[in-house]
Automatic annotation (TrEMBL):
The keyword Acyltransferase does not apply. This is YncI copper-binding domain-containing protein. Keywords: Membrane, Signal, Transmembrane, Transmembrane helix. Residues 155-189 are annotated as: Disordered. The keyword Transmembrane applies. Residues 27-148 form the YncI copper-binding domain. InterPro entries: YcnI-copper_dom, YcnI-like_sf. The chain crosses the membrane at residues 191-209. It holds the Pfam family DUF1775. Residues 1-26 form the signal peptide.
């Protein structure tokens, strides 16, 4: 019984590391997770495939308060916009022209959104459709199995240029900010399961040495 216990903890830690980390990375996310008031932000929707079948459609609901201005066209994907009675875009849906993206693949869709003048948190509800007809709704709270991505809009510099002028004058500033945020977000999401697994392995090794001594 003791011999089995010796190997149970490190085995569990390794399984946790290789199973939980991919699960944490499989979420549909919108970047950046933080932006400024009144900014014309370049938002990027990152869509990984978490099943053994292709993703062929992605619908993103635009949260009230953020106005979708323009969508970056994709070579192998079409898109359609849904508007309300006031001609405000409420959702954008990307549709694969061919087979879409398959297992172990991901894709990124980009668009320009006009942020509100007041700070707040804005939830991006996404719906991922697979070619087998199944749909994954990324609409839950942060601790849910299928959480919606959230962008926090904070108070920005009111004197900063906005719209096309902001994008042109800043060069790659917005893109670099998004990339930096993507890296930070991904690192934060991955560190917790990796750290827990590492601690479990270290504790198991210490326990083995103590018993041998």
């Amino acid at each position: 019984m003791i011999k089995r216990t010796k190997w149970f903890i490190p085995l569990f830690a390794v399984l946790f590391l290789f199973v939980m980390v991919p699960i944490a990375e499989a979420h549909v996310t919108v970047h950046p997770s933080e932006s400024s008031t009144n900014a014309y932000e370049k938002y990027t929707v990152r869509v990984p495939v978490e099943k053994d079948t292709n993703t062929t459609e992605v619908k993103l609901e635009v949260p009230e308060g953020i106005n979708l201005v323009s969508v970056l066209p994709m070579l192998d994907w079409d898109y359609k916009l849904k508007k309300d009675d006031n001609d405000v875009i409420t959702s954008v849906t990307w549709l694969a022209k061919d087979k879409g993206i398959g297992p172990n693949e991901f894709i990124e869709f980009s668009f320009i959104g006009a942020n509100p003048g007041e700070p707040g948190e804005f939830s991006w509800k996404a719906h991922q459709t697979y070619d087998d007809g199944s749909v994954v709704d990324w609409v839950g709270p942060a601790d849910a199995d299928e959480p919606a991505s959230v962008t926090k809009v904070v108070e920005g510099d009111g004197a900063a240029p906005h719209g096309d002028n902001q994008i042109a004058d800043s060069g790659n500033t917005t893109e670099e900010k998004a990339d930096e945020d993507n890296t930070t977000s991904g690192t934060t999401n991955n560190l917790l399961p990796i750290s827990l697994a590492t601690i479990a392995i270290l504790l198991a090794i210490i326990s083995l040495f103590r018993k041998r001594a």
